[in-house]
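User: I'm putting together notes for a lab meeting next week and I want to include a structural view of one of the chains we've been expressing. I don't have a solved structure, so I'd like a prediction I can at least talk through. The sequence is below, exactly as it appears in our construct file.
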Amino acid sequence: MNNNIGPHDLETARYIVAPNGDGIVKAVTDMFYPELDSDFDGFKGHNLVQKHCFTEAWPGWEMHPHGDEMVLLLSGDIDFVLWQQDQETVVRISEPGNYLVVPRGTWHTARPHAPTELLFVTPGEGTRNAASPTA
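Assistant: Thanks for the context. Below is the predicted structure for the 135-residue chain, given as structure tokens.
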């Protein structure tokens, strides 16, 4: 049981769901992402809950090989771009509370139409990043 009930701010502390269902609050530091791998056995079976704000298109693409990612729109208007069957599939999310599911192993990026805030539930183990989905 987590005795660190909160409240917490997703800007300064992320929420990690362990494989056994326990919740872990972890402060955001400059070493946050490398520490996820070192502190949580390569992040195997864990999910990361985080919030991010975007005003510009993502500079690259990412892919999560070990599970589907859920992305919830908190505010704004954004195109999520999925690389499927060797082409882009664009999913526009413009209604707060709507979400999409990025299938396991699907390269994706995002292009906001306005300042946009998103909540992510990400199976982080083995996350890959690239300049393009065909790189």
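A couple of points you could mention at the meeting. The helical segments are 32-39. The domain at 13-130 is CATH 2.60.120.10 (Jelly Rolls).

User: Perfect, that's what I needed.
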